[in-house]
């Protein structure tokens, strides 16, 4: 299987994706601005299966065959721009949500191009940017005993890259890929994350998206 790098992977969301990818047999490089911290975080993760998780710098993570962007939203564009050459020609998966807190709720923030995936695609014109992993509760992702059964909504203007990410997601335990369509859907899909998190805060829950009525 191909290697997967996660930029900014030491946060809760990145750790959850790393554990599930490793459990699906992928070798994952958890990237960070602080490689030593990344190594410590990776060593503390427990996965199942034949894959592995190691820690390294963001530069090293960007050298993997597939790269996931899991940085905070306000540093995502700067991070990928600095790695533009390393990411050229690769599938780059954005799981970034631009959210700001207002009271007990999180509300979406709309960047100039309407969505963070679109901002990242503009910064990486020679990469194939795919959006995925937006509506998943991090605590449930990292815990392989959580009985997670979630759908991952996927979008991109690159059909082949979209399908390759869907195949990767379907291999991850507890997840099902649902291809939604093109990058034009990015804003709506990312913004719905605010709804999911606000519901979880209000109800002290770890809910997630599950779409009924699909044939697969």
What would CATH call the class?
Answer: Alpha Beta
- How many domains make up the coordinates? 1
The helix tally amounts to: 9
- Superfamily at the CATH H level? NAD(P)-binding Rossmann-like Domain
Structural class determined from secondary elements: alpha/beta
How would you state the average pLDDT, rounded?
Answer: 96
Portion in beta strands: 15-25%
CATH T-level topology? Rossmann fold
Helix content: 25-40%
Please give the number of β-strands: 10
For the biggest β-sheet, the strand order reads 3-2-1-4-5-8-9-10
Radius of gyration: 16 Å
Dominant shape: globular
Major beta sheet, specifics? Answer: 8 strands, mixed
> Termini distance?
24 Å
Q: Note poorly predicted spans.
A: none
**H and E order:** EHEHEHEHHEEEHEHEHEH
Annotation keywords:
216 residues, alpha/beta, Rossmann fold, 8-stranded mixed beta sheet, two-stranded antiparallel sheet, 9 helices, 10 strands
Can you walk me through this structure?
The protein has 216 residues and is α/β, with parallel strands linked by helices. The chain is globular and about 35 Å long. It is built from 9 helices and 10 strands. It has helices at residues 12-23, 35-43, 58-61, 73-82, 84-87, 116-123, 138-142, 159-171, 186-203; strands spanning 4-7, 27-32, 52-57, 66-69, 91-94, 99-102, 105-108, 128-131, 150-156, 175-181. The longest helix has 18 residues, at 186-203. The chain has an 8-stranded mixed β-sheet, sandwiched between helices. Strand 2, helix 2 (35-43) and strand 3 (52-57) form a beta-alpha-beta unit.
